[in-house]
Write a structure and sequence with these properties.
The structure is a single chain. This protein is α/β, with parallel strands linked by helices. The protein has 2 domains: 139 residues, Rossmann fold (3-Layer(aba) Sandwich); 78 residues, SIR2/SIRT2 'Small Domain', CATH 3.30.1600.10. 35% of the residues lie in helices and 20% in strands. It is built from 10 helices and 9 strands. The strands form 2 sheets. Strands 3-2-1-7-8-9 form a 6-stranded parallel beta sheet, with helices on both faces. Strands 5-4-6 form a 3-stranded antiparallel beta sheet, covered by helices on one side. Helix 6 runs parallel beside helix 10. It binds ligand BJW. Ligand BJW binds next to helix 1.
């Protein structure tokens, strides 16, 4: 059976109303990365960082998966699919998919003292007490710059076996995810990119357009050809 690996980024959730990072009106246009998405930023101003993620947790909780998220769930029912997402919004999970959430998840808290994780539906406080050890060390379970993304072994193992690798709605600027297409190329995979604009990374096929239109059409084509 064909092994497919798909990497998604913020673009797949844009049509669900979730802001991307690097658009002219994106998150990084309103917040400096160094102020909100690094361990140093959290140590310096935990209230600012918690506020940024509280806002995004609320937005994500109110958002619904779109036709592209649903199409990938449909695809997983028919092929050997490893879905890897850089997104922390949980929309693949809401669509019923099992996705490797390599940059963490807004819906979870993490204790930087004891390593406990918990479901976090509402706002986090400053400081936020860990429900397991009570230390005032709760933080969003998000991979910040300089931290090691989650489940890298699973990602690498899947990519090394991939017959087809598709990148959907990511600007391919943040490593290690930005290097996945090169690894997939080394593995001999057919490379597909779905985006509004070409990123400049090497792909064999570029499908231009909003993910809610391009992804369901591509998925339906694969399923009918089986
Ligand atoms: C649509 C669309 C529609 C819009 N339809 N498309 C120098 C050189 C190389 C590397 C480094 C370096 N200095 C530092 C590094 C490493 C660093 C890094 O890569 N920095 C770069 C900026 C250079 N990386 C790290 O620190 C990572 N850790 C690491 O490397 O550890 C070492 C290690 C790794 C592996 C093994 C062992 C050790 C950690 C990175 C953590 C990233 N964190 C963030 C923020 C936290 C999460 C959060 O708050 O949500 O993750 S950054 C931010 O960018 C977020 C995203 O997941 C990530 C990627 O963004 P994404 O998804 O691509 O969004 P955009 O906005 O950039 O693009 C959207 C795209 O969609 C666009 O192309 C649009 O056109 C498109 N689009 N609408 C289809 N409707």
């Amino acid at each position: 059976m064909t092994k497919i690996v798909i990497l998604t980024g913020a673009g797949i959730s844009a049509e669900s109303g979730i802001a991307t990072f690097r658009a002219s009106d994106g998150l990084w246009a309103q917040h400096r990365v160094e102020d909100v998405a690094t361990p140093d930023a959290f140590a310096r101003d935990p209230a600012l960082v918690q506020g940024f993620y509280n806002m995004r947790r609320t937005d994500a909780a109110q958002a619904e998966p779109n036709a592209a998220h649903h199409a990938l769930k449909r695809l997983a029912d028919h092929v050997d699919l490893t879905l890897i997402t850089q997104n922390v919004d949980g929309l693949h999970a809401k669509a019923g998919s099992h996705a490797i959430e390599m940059h963490g998840a807004l819906r979870r808290g993490l204790c930087s003292q004891c390593g406990a994780r918990w479901e976090q539906s509402g706002d986090m406080a400053t400081p936020h007490p860990c429900p397991a050890c009570t230390a005032p060390a709760g933080r969003p379970d998000i991979v910040w710059f300089g931290e090691i993304p989650y489940h890298m072994d699973d990602c690498m193992a899947a990519i090394q076996q991939a017959d087809l690798f598709a990148s959907i709605g990511t600007s391919a600027q943040v490593y290690p995810a930005a290097g996945f297409s090169n690894l997939a190329q080394d593995a001999g995979a057919d490379l597909w990119e779905f985006n509004l604009d070409q990123t400049g990374a090497h792909f064999d096929h570029f499908v231009c357009g909003p993910a809610t239109q391009t992804v369901p059409q591509w998925v339906d084509g694969i399923i009918t050809s089986l």
